[in-house]
Design a protein that fits this description.
By secondary structure, the chain is an alpha+beta fold. It has four domains: about 50 residues; about 55 residues; about 150 residues, Ribonuclease H-like superfamily/Ribonuclease H (Nucleotidyltransferase, domain 5, 2-Layer Sandwich); about 120 residues, no CATH class. Helix content is about 40%, strand content about 15%. The strands form three sheets. Strands 3-2-1-4-5 form a five-stranded mixed beta sheet, sandwiched between helices. A four-stranded antiparallel beta sheet has the order 6-9-10-11, with no helix packed on it. It is elongated, with a radius of gyration of 36 Å. InterPro entries: Homeodomain-like_sf, Integrase_cat-core, ISNCY_transpos, RNaseH-like_sf, RNaseH_sf. This is ISNCY family transposase. It holds the Pfam family HTH_29.
Length: about 450
């Protein structure tokens, strides 16, 4: 009997044995006098069991047939063993026309051991990890998306580089998005000022880790991975945010302190913030950085020249030259200079270098090739089409495609190429320094 029925039994027994007035007992049970009389009569005839619900222990008249349950569980066990209740419910309905409620199926799977509720699962244990021994041995990196300027400017991303051994901020950089070009520019600024660390520790963002199997098996899974490979810096990707807890906790601290400091300084845009960040980094490290276990600095000197670093920190893609020494990149047609030496490169692969400041270079081996460009998204000069005998047919074809795109209103750059926001910001910065730098295309 239930607790409620046991309490009712005590009152009915007292009323039956006249230890309690029936009128009072009816009020206590919220029953009518006649209903209480029926309960007393049943108690005297059949004992306490008469007060239990009559359907207790009997199968429900509205129950689902046992054959349906057996079929559903057998299908799940055979075809959907790792499916959750919601997905299994969808598949049973779509593919097998088995219509049962989601909650009923969930309870069946729980009782049959096919599903463990989240509340009953053992929590994952994250063992604390000791700090690294030396400065520069491991640097954790992450992007923190936040309303950094409190509505004074659009939301943006802060790229954070923090040393694991000391908790020192090694570099900070604001960017519109968390893109490969932004990480390239932030990393270059870091290694030019500090040197090359032993390893970077990041999450599994697509900038650092490629989920595509073919990309993983390739020599360089991602553009940023290729940059670190060329610099002999190890890239380690964490499987959880808890594993790189130092940078995650630093993000929370920065979202509190840095945001308020910029408010006091009257900083309201990315450009001013990036210029001021070195002062904040110095103050932050003075307050929170710890001494490393060993005093040795694991940063290595950068051996590459500035020109070599330019090539390393570029977006690189391979293109194959056509029979007329042309190739296409980002909807721009590149025409390699027709020299005796270059004619041997027909059908050969060349490397396209797309620099963060918008410049383009083409390399074959260690030699950079001279080229001309024809942008299909710009207007075509008919005079050039007539005068240039070698490129006439190519340009006419491009003009035709241009008109088709113009009508279809699809005049935009390739979506498979790199994000250009970092390039536009860098180009604006360079033009502010030197207004003569208007044409960024290398010819």
């Amino acid at each position: 009997m239930s607790r409620l029925e046991l309490d009712r039994l005590a009152i009915v027994r007292d009323a039956s044995e006249k230890r309690l007035r029936r009128q009072d007992a009816a009020e206590m049970l919220s029953l009518s006098y006649r209903q209480l009389q029926r309960l007393i009569t049943a108690y005297r005839q059949h004992g306490p069991s008469a007060l239990a619900h009559g359907n207790r222990g009997k199968p429900s008249s509205n129950r689902i047939d046992d054959n349906v349950r057996v079929r559903a569980l057998s299908l799940i066990r055979r075809l959907y063993p790792d499916f959750g209740p919601s997905l299994a419910h969808e598949k049973l309905l779509e593919k097998h026309q088995l219509s049962v409620s989601l909650e009923t199926l969930r309870q069946w799977m729980i009782s049959d051991g096919l599903w463990v509720p989240h509340a009953q699962r053992q929590p994952r244990v994250y063992q604390p990890r000791q700090r690294r021994d030396c400065l520069g041995e491991l640097v954790q990196i992450d992007g923190s998306h936040h309303d950094w300027f409190e509505g004074r400017s659009p939301k943006c991303c802060l790229l954070v580089f923090i040393d694991d051994a000391t908790g020192r901020l090694m570099n900070l950089r604001f960017s519109e998005t968390e893109s490969a070009f932004d990480y390239m520019m932030a990393t270059r600024a870091y290694i030019e000022r500090r040197g090359k660390p032993t390893a970077f520790y990041s999450d599994r963002h697509s900038i650092f880790h490629a989920s595509n199997k073919n990309a993983i098996e390739s020599k360089y899974p991602t553009q940023y991975g290729r940059v670190l490979k060329d610099l002999h810096i190890e890239l380690i990707c964490a499987n959880s945010s808890q594993a790189k807890g130092r940078v995650e906790r630093a993000n929370k601290t920065l979202q509190d302190r840095l945001l308020k400091e910029m408010r006091l300084q009257g900083i309201s845009n990315i450009e001013d913030a990036n210029e001021w960040l070195p002062y904040f980094i110095a103050d932050f490290n003075k307050r929170f950085a710890k001494a490393a276990k060993f005093p040795k600095d694991m940063h290595r000197k950068v051996q590459q020249t500035a020109e070599e670093l330019d090539d390393i920190f570029s977006w690189q893609e391979v293109r194959k030259l056509s029979g007329s020494l042309t190739f296409q990149y980002d909807k721009v047609l590149y025409l390699i200079e027709d020299t005796e030496e270059n004619t041997r490169l027909v059908r050969e692969n060349v490397l396209v270098l797309d620099y963060p400041d918008g410049r383009i270079a083409v390399k074959y081996g260690e030699r950079k090739l001279t080229f001309r460009t024809f942008d299909k998204l710009e207007k075509v000069d008919q005079g050039q089409v007539v005068d240039n005998k070698r490129l006439g047919n190519v340009l006419r074809f491009a003009q035709q495609k241009q008109e088709e795109l113009e009508k279809a209103e699809k005049r935009e750059r390739s979506k498979s190429g790199p994000k250009r926001r970092a390039q536009r910001r860098e180009l604006t910065r360079l033009q502010n320094i030197n207004p003569v730098l208007m044409d960024t295309k290398t010819k």
